[in-house]
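ok trying this again, last paste got cut off
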Amino acid sequence: MDISLKCFATLVEADKCDYKSSTKKTLPEGATVRKLLAREGIPDKDVKLIFVNGKKASLDTPLRNGDQVGLAPATGGM
C-alpha cells in the first residue's frame, strides 16, 4: 500500500521526509504508524504528534492505502 508522509521541525530529512510536500512511502498491508517509523529509522521517542488524514493518531494506528501521515516532534514546551 502507498501512503504520503510529511515531517516537521527536527524530523525533516531532505529526500526522506519533508514538510514542503508529502513523500510517497510503500508499506505492507496492515502496517501501523509504529511500523512506518521503524522503516524510516525514526525513533518512537522522537515523535510527539501523529496525524493520519488530519486526525490525531497513535503509534498503533493502522494505516490504509492512500493515507496521509504527519509527524511532529516535541517543540516549544509541548
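PB: full thing came through this time. Helices lie at 33-40.
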